[in-house]
Amino acid sequence: MDINGHDLIMACSAIGAGIGVISGIGPGVGQGIAAGYAANAVGRNPGAKGDITSTMLLGQAVAETTGLYGLLVAMLLLFVKPLA
Q1: Helices (H) and strands (E) in the chain, counts
Q2: Model's pTM, two decimal places?
Q3: Which residue among 13, 27, 31, 55 is least packed, with the fewest CB closer than 10 Å?
Q4: CB of 29 within 8 A of CB of 67?
Q5: What CATH number belongs to 5-78?
Q6: Tens of pLDDT along 55-83?
Q7: Residue 45 to residues 39, 49, 68, 73: CA-CA distances in angstroms?
Q8: pLDDT, tens digit, 9 for 90 and up, residues 8-57
Q9: 17 near 77, Cβ under 8 Å?
């Protein structure tokens, strides 16, 4: 089996891209928990629905950036040719 330097770099880039995509699990879980707590809060205090919803959406937007950064790194690792 003959593996040269370029093949090793491409294999490590693919592994790194997989790990980068896995980073999307954390924001998904966090957003689900935030939505559940927001629904619980609205159920207890329906008058504060607007404030709760806007705060929840702001928090989810901030949490989603980490997943998007992971996706961006994965795309760069897969489609940008390293050492070209």
Answers
A1: 3, 0
A2: 0.72
A3: 55
A4: no
A5: 1.20.20.10
A6: 999 988 888 898 899 899 999 988 887 66
A7: 10, 7, 33, 41
A8: 888 888 999 999 889 889 888 988 999 999 999 999 999 999 999 999 99
A9: yes
Residues 6+ apart with CB under 8 A from 12: none
Number of residues that this document lists for the chain: 84
- Interatomic CA distance for residues 50 and 41, integer angstroms: 11
As given in the structure block, the two tokens for residue 72 are: 């961006």
Tokens of 58: 């702001």
Residue written as token pair 């896995």: 22
Amino acid at 46: P
Residue where the block lists tokens 């629905």: 49
